[in-house]
Amino acid sequence: MFCMNTLTQIPFDPNSPTHCYQMLMGRVTAGFPSPAADWLDEPLNVVDYLIEHPSSTFFMSYTGKPIQKVMVNTGDILVVDKSVLPRTGTLVVLCQEGEMKLRLWQGDENATLETEDWYVWGSVIGLARKLVK
Amino acid sequence: MLLWALADVNSMYASCEQVFRPDLRGKPVIVASNNDGSIIARNKEAKLLGIKMGAPLHQCMDVIRQNRVAVFSSQYTLYGDMSNRVMTLLADMAPAHEVYSIDEAFLLYPNGLHQAESHGRAIVERIKRCTGLGIGVGFGPTKTLAKLANHIAKTSPSAKGVFDISVLNQLELDALLESLPISEVWGVGRRHAERLGLLGIQSVKQLRDADIDQIKTQFGSVLCRTVLELRGIVCFPLEENAPDKQQIMCSRSFAHEVSDLDVLGSAISHHVCRAMQKLRSQQSVTNGFTIMIRTNPFKPELIQHYGSMTGMLSRATDDTLVVQRLALQVLAKLYRKGYRYKKAGVMLLEVQPKSFHQHDLFEPIQLSNPRRDALMQSMDKIAHRFGREKIKLASELYKGWEMRRERLSPRYTTRWNELPKVTC
Ligand SMILES: [Mg+2]
After folding, report:
1. 3-state SS, residue B41
2. Topology of domain B248-396, per CATH?
3. Chain A residues with CB inside 8 Å of B421's CB?
4. Which fold, B7-143?
5. Near ion ligand 1, which residues have CB within 5 Å?
6. Helices B370-386 & B320-334 angle (0-180, nearest 10)
7. Full-model pTM
């Protein structure tokens, strides 16, 4: 079952925690998953799925008329990553007249993100919504 | 050549509030302590209005009204989350780092940097882009010089937030240190500054060139090390475990004065719970605690009492129930009937890593009681999962001491029901 060639490439040291770790994580198998690796999986987590950069990602709540084109409704949670530069067509949180507003970004990658009157707070990279509350 | 950096967020608390309030862009913002007693943070615009750090809020009401200064109560939940983000990002940008305070970190580059200034700009840029917060970065051959460089990064208009003191030649360095007062040096408090002043030592350059033996005999070895650090000799190493503080403090002012011992006890229990949770989260044990209660010193018409008492434990522990029981006994001794208390707090003393603790061979081992450990762990888990409000010791249940929550902004980043709002 095990691919022994790959296994023997790792020098065996029964006392090495790294070795045990590599064994358990299934890195020694090639083609055949180790049965041990299955139960070591973390449960799936939607937050991990939605977020790329935890340090620069914030949640915001949307209130307003539904935006058909991108299917955003009132009560939706916007996943906003400040580190992601908007491209044409990116949904952004734009600060204007002292408020945070949801807008489709029309500029390209080189467009300015800040003027006297407005600035881009961050790019909306995902949405979260409960269908049954 | 080894190089240090000190990165320090600009007006951390006020800036955190501004990030989520576009209407306050470019406006003066101040943050007051929890009982709205005194000003603990000001942004650049508020500083320009002459609002002083530590000033009581009510003394500044005219300036605040005339200039429409935005006033907030300190929202440490938000500041703590923003701090974690900044520290995580900074840790990525240096081989080694030390979190020094909620908004400052030392970064260590054991092999130096080719272009410290451009690296500093990259740090400023990244923190700004990812968190919206401004940060200043100072570079130097020692921690003390890096901290001094940070001061210049923030105050000199030409530095624009980044300054490397290590690239100056001797003449430039001398001129710079000559122009700076010793009070700007890390570790030189007001007391030291006054006493050094009497010796004619006023500029940083004079302190650097002071007689080292005289400093050692008159001011002790710590200031002596500071002087050596000003000369470029590393005396303060990287403290890998700096966030594991030697003391853990939890205290708060009450919205209304409290005279009832049970209500005071409930507040103390709450603080013990929080402090012990912090203690366990850093895998530490405590050897004792101080309980502090005080009346309102701003109401001189009332009879005043400030009481604090320390209880030392026969052996170190991380057990909430042990500390809580003793803390309530100490409080009962401290408490005086008929006084109206305004503030209560708990400080854990001689905090040390649990792993370092030596068991007493001849005593029954109470430190690692597996059942108690399991209880503490499940308390922490429940508290973590459901928010701290859900699990409380019975004596915490008396209310009446909730701190004043006027002007408290939402916990934008840690509560689903307090998220920033976006409209169409
Ligand atoms: Mg700061």
Report:
1. strand
2. Dna Ligase; domain 1 (3.30.1490)
3. 60-63, 100
4. MutS, DNA mismatch repair protein, domain I (3.40.1170)
5. B 8-9, 12, 103
6. 80
7. 0.69
